[in-house]
C-alpha cells in the first residue's frame, strides 16, 4: 500500500515538474527575442562599418583577425563569435515561430543556448499549466515517472523475496 502511494506521489511530482516545460520555453523565448534583437543591432553596425571601409562582413572579419595588433585580433574574434551566435539564435527563433507550444519545448531541448538557459533559469517563475501544452507535458511527466518508478519497484522484487526467505530461516 505504501509503495503504491509513493509511486503515485512520484508520478504526480513528475507531472507537475514536466508541466512547467512550456512556461520555461516561453520565458526562454522572450530572452531569445531580446538577444536576437541586440545581436542584430551589433551585426548591422559591423556590416555598416565594413561597407564604409569597402569590405563585406567576411573580408572585414578576416582583416581584423590578420592584423598585427592583438586588440584588433581579439575584436575580430569576438565579432566573428557574435555573428555566429546571431545566426544560430536567429535560426532557433525561426524554429520557435514555426512551431506550436510543444514544438517550442522541443526547440529549447534540441539546441539550447547555454547562456540563455542559465539566465532563464535564474529568473524563472513557475506558472500554473492552464494550456493544452501544459496538460500534455504534465501527462507525459506523470506517465514517464510512473513507469520508471514501477520498473524500479519491480526490479527490487527478487531482493525482497530473498530477504523474506532469509528472515523466515532465521526465525526457525
Instruction: Give the strand tally.
Output: 0
N-end to C-end Cα span? 28 Å
- Bin the helical content: over 70%
**Main pleated sheet:** none
Order of helices and strands: HHHHHHH
Low-confidence stretches are: none
Computed Rg: 26 Å
Overall structural domain count: 2
Structural class: mainly alpha
What is the percentage of strand-forming residues? under 5%
Shape estimate? elongated
Mean pLDDT: 86
Total of helices? 7
Describe it for me?
The chain has two domains: 1-19 and 130-172; 21-125, no CATH class. The protein starts with a helix and ends with a helix. Helices cover 86% and strands 0% of the residues. It is an all-alpha fold and 172 residues long. The protein is built from seven helices and no strands. The mean pLDDT is 86. Helix 1 runs antiparallel to helix 7, helix 3 (57-66) packs antiparallel against helix 4 (70-98) and helix 4 (70-98) runs antiparallel to helix 5 (101-110).
Helix-strand layout with pairing:
Elements: H1 2-18, H2 21-52, H3 57-66, H4 70-98, H5 101-110, H6 114-123, H7 132-171
Features:
172 residues; 0% strand; mainly alpha
Structure described in brief:
The protein is 86% helix and 0% strand. It has two domains: 1-19 and 130-172; 21-125, no CATH class.
Amino acid at each position: 500500500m505504501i509503495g503504491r502511494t509513493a509511486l503515485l506521489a512520484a508520478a504526480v511530482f513528475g507531472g507537475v515538474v514536466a508541466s512547467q516545460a512550456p512556461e520555461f520555453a516561453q520565458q526562454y523565448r522572450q530572452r531569445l527575442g531580446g538577444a536576437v534583437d541586440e545581436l542584430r543591432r551589433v551585426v548591422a553596425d559591423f556590416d555598416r562599418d565594413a561597407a564604409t571601409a569597402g569590405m563585406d562582413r567576411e573580408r572585414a572579419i578576416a582583416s581584423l583577425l590578420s592584423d598585427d595588433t592583438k586588440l584588433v585580433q581579439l575584436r575580430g574574434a569576438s565579432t566573428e563569435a557574435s555573428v555566429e551566435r546571431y545566426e544560430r539564435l536567429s535560426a532557433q527563433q525561426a524554429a520557435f515561430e514555426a512551431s506550436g507550444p510543444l514544438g517550442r519545448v522541443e526547440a529549447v531541448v534540441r539546441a539550447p543556448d547555454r547562456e540563455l538557459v542559465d539566465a532563464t533559469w535564474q529568473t524563472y517563475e513557475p506558472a500554473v499549466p492552464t494550456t493544452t501544452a501544459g496538460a500534455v507535458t504534465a501527462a507525459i511527466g506523470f506517465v514517464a515517472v510512473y513507469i520508471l518508478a514501477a520498473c524500479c519497484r519491480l526490479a527490487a522484487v527478487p531482493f525482497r523475496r530473498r530477504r523474506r526467505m532469509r528472515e523466515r530461516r532465521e526465525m526457525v
